[in-house]
Amino acid sequence: MNKHTQLTQVIDMARKISDEGLSAGRSGNISMRHGEGMFITPTGMASSDLHPSDIVYVDAKGRWSDAGLKPSSEWHFHHAIYQKRLDANCIIHTHSPMATSIACARMPIPAFHYMVAGLGGREIPCCGYELFGTDALAEAIISTIGSQYHGCLMGGHGSIAFAGDAPMAFERAELIEELAGMYLR
Fold first, then answer.
1. Sheet strands (E) in 87-149
2. What spatial distance separates the first Cα and last Cα of the chain, rounded to whole Å?
3. DSSP state, residue 153
């Protein structure tokens, strides 16, 4: 996939998570693997205002150009997932209402419904709370997803979902929210 197509997909997914109510305002972020690094949405910018030139490239060592915008404060966990999981090509982080409610209770979503397996296991796990934008949060997520899960809840924070392509990553992000809503009801 060429650079322009990837940048367009990142923007489309960022707008879609906002339009679908999976993240409000300037919250949430999207990334796509590109070569040894990744493209990621910038920090503090509304998805409706994004243009391809706003998307930040972070290299394999976690560096980006000082000439443009800064990457999302959550770039650490995106970077860590790409380093550990070769099956991840798109990561979506949301603050969707139902999933975030369960994450704030620091609970996994158990196998109450067969579709829980859509994230790779017998539950949708929840990592412990760590401060946003830190290596500690990245480590907690990596430990929680291991080599099995395709996403998780983030204690006191929100959720992540990833896949080999953007449409499946979005489908998994939606699935987490749908299952969280069913479980709460």
1. 90-94, 109-110, 123-124, 126-127
2. 41
3. E
- The span from the CA of 185 to the CA of 173, in Å, is 19
Task: Write down the catalytic residue from 20, 74, 177, 178.
Answer: 74
Task: For CA atoms 33, 38, 43, 48, give the dihedral sign.
Answer: negative
Q: What does the chain come to in residues? A: 185
Residue 67: the pLDDT is 81
Tell me the average confidence (pLDDT) per consecutive run of 10 residues in the chain, 185 residues long.
92 94 90 97 93 96 90 97 98 97 98 96 97 97 97 98 98 98 97
**Cβ(183)–Cβ(109) below 8 Å:** yes
Strand pairing report for 151-154 and 126-127 = parallel
Could you give the CA distance from residue 36 to residue 82 in angstroms, rounded to a whole number?
9
Rounded distance between C-alpha atoms, residue 130 and residue 171, angstroms: 26
- Sign of the CA dihedral with 161 first, then 33, 83, and 41 last: negative
Q: Reply yes or no on whether 74 is catalytic.
A: yes
Outline where DSSP puts E strands in 42-88: 56-58
